[in-house]
Amino acid sequence: MKQKELEKLAQSLAKNIKTESDLSNFSSQLMKMTVEAALGAEMDDHLGYPKGQKSKNKNYRNGFTKKKIKSNVGEVEISTPRDRNGDFEPILVKKRQTRLTQFDEQILSLYAKGMSTRDIVATFEEMYDGAQISPMLVSKVTKRLLNNLNNGKPVS
């Protein structure tokens, strides 16, 4: 998504924000959507196929677990996806983690500045002492969030 498209989207979203409370609520909702989109993309990567697609893989999605996390916008309740085998280990919000590491925001910020997915991966490896995220994961995180922001309309 280009800078002008992001600005247009921000202007559209900001029309309903009138008070600090509105801004706080919006920030919490955006954080929830971002984290859940990232976790969904991680699950897609873990299983090897996107949600809604049939697979011969014996492991599959198995609902969600509610979890409260603290972030820079306050406490947010998220739904963490589960897999049937129970071996899904999220990277962005690890099991038993109660504070965000801000990976998701940083991915989106770097992406919005025009960095390629591979550049974002390299940046994360430098910033977080060898943190391993794949270019495919970065791409899925950004596409899923943008799709959520566009109310389910495909991202071009």
Keywords:
156 residues, alpha+beta, two-stranded antiparallel ribbon, 5 helices
Summarize the SSE layout with pairings:
Blueprint: H1 3-14, H2 20-47, E1 61-71, E2 74-83, H3 103-112, H4 117-127, H5 135-149
Antiparallel strand pairs: 1-2
Helix pairs in contact: 2-5, 4-5
Provide a short characterization of the protein structure.
The protein is built from five helices and two strands, in the order H-H-E-E-H-H-H. It is an alpha+beta fold.
General description of the model:
It is a single chain. The chain is an alpha+beta fold and 156 residues long. The chain has helices at 3-14, 20-47, 103-112, 117-127, 135-149, and strands at residues 61-71, 74-83. A two-stranded antiparallel sheet has the order 1-2. Helix 2 packs across helix 5 (135-149) and helix 4 packs across helix 5 (135-149). It starts with a helix and ends in a 7-residue tail after the last helix.
